[in-house]
TrEMBL record:
Gene that specifies this protein: oppD3
UniProt key word Transport: yes
Protein's name according to its UniProt entry: Oligopeptide transport ATP-binding protein OppD
UniProt GO BP: peptide transport
Keywords: ATP-binding, Cell membrane, Membrane, Nucleotide-binding, Transport
Length: 324
């Protein structure tokens, strides 16, 4: 396994109290595989990814327990210097907002080139050629001319392609893309997502695709891990989830995807809001919003039940959900 997160717990200590952002997350991704991590805003998706990348805000963040095995090594046991070497070269991250991740006063050619001068000791001229090659790879038209331009001279979609190029530069084994298309309009979203999926296959990378939008992952993900209040509540091959969700929260997310054949109809929304992470509800954290909740859900925290060999659901009533 390329990456395995085991029983990860992360909390934030703030003046108002302790926010339990990640509460025993387990997930894994292999080379050539795409894992989509899904859930509403505030469910702990980014914090988990930041812990994997080693870029968590500490303090106020604190990893209180767990393991993050990357190519068999527990990253949490490495020195910062060793982790820095892994970052960029062996795992890279793509963020939602390219404009704030790119340096506004450096041309994109210089920024892409820096990956090769700094990490690979290349000459500036060779690095520039590599930058053009990468821009071609992510299909930025007229790469030879545009390599001299600055980030603000590119459209949102093109900037996101530059971010993908930066992430790919050193051919990492793992890419984590955190809401990579959220800031783009819908047609551009699909193009960027397709490109990312294509490059992932071509380079045989592991890809963790974080999104709050189930609609964008159907064609690109192999597996889906659904997060709620810092836990994985359902984990399954993508086709299983679309066929029939085994958790009422997943069902809620599925039902809130806008569908072309229902244009004009009011969109379903899960009632209520995700919990405050300083006061996570007892039992199943989803129970106050769940249409299927029973007494046991308010008192007993559901474990991740085995639905099948490759599928788990943290719902006491997963059978009813699956067949209902
Ligand atoms: N820098 C921070 N300081 C304090 N709390 C934070 C910080 N980053 C994240 N959190 C807490 O962790 C929760 C989960 O955040 P995050 O992982 O970013 O959610 P998402 O699923 O939307 O990516 C937030 O709602 C917040 O309570
Ligand atoms: Mg996030």
């Amino acid at each position: 396994m390329l990456l395995e997160v085991r029983d990860l717990h992360v909390e934030f200590r703030t003046r108002d109290g302790v926010a339990k952002a990640v509460n025993g997350v387990n997930y894994a991704v292999d080379a050539g595989e795409t894992l989509a991590v899904l859930g509403e805003s505030g469910s702990g998706k980014s914090v988990t990814a930041q812990a994997v990348m080693g870029i968590l805000d500490m303090p106020p963040g604190r990893i209180t327990s767990g393991e993050i095995l990357f190519q068999g090594k527990d990253l949490l046991k490495l020195k910062e210097e060793e982790r820095r070497k892994i970052r960029g070269a062996e795992m890279a991250m793509i963020f939602q907002d390219a404009l704030s991740s790119l340096n506004p006063v450096l041309s994109v050619g210089d920024q892409l080139g820096e990956m090769f001068t700094v990490h690979r000791g290349m000459s500036r001229k060779d690095a520039r050629a590599k930058a053009v090659e990468l821009m071609d790879r992510v299909r930025i038209p007229a790469a030879k001319e545009r390599v001299k331009q600055y980030p603000h001279q590119f459209s949102g979609g093109m900037r996101q392609r530059i971010m993908i190029a930066m992430a790919l530069a050193l051919e990492p084994a793992l890419i984590i893309a955190d809401e990579p298309t959220t800031a783009l309009d819908v047609t551009v979203q699909a193009q960027v997502m397709d490109l990312l999926a294509e490059l992932q296959r071509e380079y045989n990378m592991g890809l963790i695709l974080i999104t709050h939008d189930l609609g964008v992952v159907a064609d690109v993900a192999d597996r889906i891990a659904v997060m709620y209040a810092g836990r994985i509540v359902e984990s399954a091959p993508v086709h299983d989830i679309y066929k029939a969700p085994a958790h009422p929260y997943t069902r809620g997310l599925l039902d809130s995807i806008p569908r072309l054949d229902q244009k004009g109809q009011e969109l379903y929304a899960i009632k209520g809001l995700p919990p405050n992470l300083m006061r996570i509800p007892s039992g199943c954290a989803f129970h106050p919003r769940c249409p299927m909740a029973q007494d046991v859900c308010r008192t007993d925290e559901p474990p991740l039940y085995d639905v099948s060999e490759e599928r788990g659901s943290a719902c006491h009533f997963w059978r009813e959900c699956l067949h209902g």
